[in-house]
Amino acid sequence: MSVSKAIHPGEAADAGPASPRPYRAAVIGTGFMGRVHSHAVRASGGEVVGVAGSSPDKAERFRVANGIARAHGDALELVRGDDVDVVHVCTPNDLHAPLSLAALEAGKHVVCEKPLATDADTARGLVQAAREAERVAVVPFVYRFHPMAREARAQVAAGSLGRVTLAHGGYLQDWLLYPEEDNWRVDPVRGGATRAFGDIGSHWCDMLEFVTGDRITAVSARTSRVNDTRDGRAVATEDLVSLQFSTVGGVIGNAVISQVSPGRKNRLVLEVSGTEGSLLFDQENPETLWAGSRGRTGTITRDDPGLSADAARLATVPVGHPQGYQDCFNALVADTAAAIAGHPPEGLPVFEDGLRAAVLAEAVLLSDRERRWVDVAEVEQG
To answer: Which residues on neighbouring strands pair with residue 247, listed in sequence order?
Structure first.
């Protein structure tokens, strides 16, 4: 049975016991994400058996710094190792698809950083490959794993907001504010045709659809570049995106995506309003969920006695001891291990979710290019 199927609101979670088999992981990539994944594997009781990087020296330095058994100059050699169960792909975007496919062909489970692929057609091929291989295939839309994001989702599903009518927010960063700041993500060959939307707008759209249980059906988008050159070379990818959308359920909304907003470090904000109430989740302040209605406003915290079971499951330390980004990754890896054991928890983001992000990204670019509303179905059909 394939477990690379997206799990949607209303589907029952299997709460069976985890497998006693070790979670033996290979990590490909020696940057920030490689460190985050390696820590999450260990925090969840697994073992990082090997690492590969862009050079043998980088792999060896990472191995020593992180106490990993061995380093590989050849990623494919590591992927095919008999002692590897799961491959974590933490490389530049252009390598996500070939390395994930190689892992699936070797019979391994995969956790691939987003974007799953730099185009929707390649992402479709990976979804099919995961199904045929019957492997667990995960894309880390990790903000789903904040307990208060799960609480927002549970409240929407329970009807606490009434009929949802509006959703808005954005994802703002400033790490590419200045023209001298550069990164491989800026290069469309390495990062893909979309940068700001593909990198962080994808997270916002995933959060919207995950929390509301609704799907974006049409988009109207504009993109912009603040810096036409970086480090002396021309730039082709966007710094900013302004997005309008509508959904299957009749929700309308908008979002602003930016990697050049001074002072904003990693501010993913989603506000959802209905006929009876509103909820707001702010990733930079993830310990609480703002809730409002005509009669009152207030905050919901992780120790609320009425917290949903799914949110409570992810609240691993007492209130007053903040949980954050790394905790989300730890939970994602733990849920991946449960899925490998045959008990996929509800809400695990899988390759279908990565394909969904690729489809939305292409719809956004098409809308900007042709200056029109685009039905997402135009891109979904390939």
So the answer is: 216
Amino acid in position 233: R
Q: Which two tokens stand for residue 249?
A: 């359920």
115 upstream amide cis, omega within 30 of 0? yes
Put simply, whether the predicted model's pTM sits higher than 0.85 gets the answer yes
H-type alpha helices, 255-350:
309-314, 325-340
* Rounded alpha-carbon distances, angstroms, from residue 169 to 13, 87, 140, 242, 293: 29, 34, 21, 11, 18
CA-to-CA separations, 38 to 68, 253, 363, in angstroms, rounded: 9, 37, 34
The amino acid present at 77, given as its one-letter code, is E
Q: Given phi > 0 = left and psi -120 to 50 = alpha, else beta, which region is 307?
A: beta
What are the C-alpha distances in Å from 336 to residues 66, 151, 313? 22, 21, 15
Q: Give the tens place of pLDDT for each residue, 315-362.
A: 999 999 999 999 999 999 999 999 999 999 999 999 999 999 999 999
The arrangement of strands across the sheet holding 24-28 comes to: 71-72, 47-52, 24-28, 86-89, 109-112, 137-138
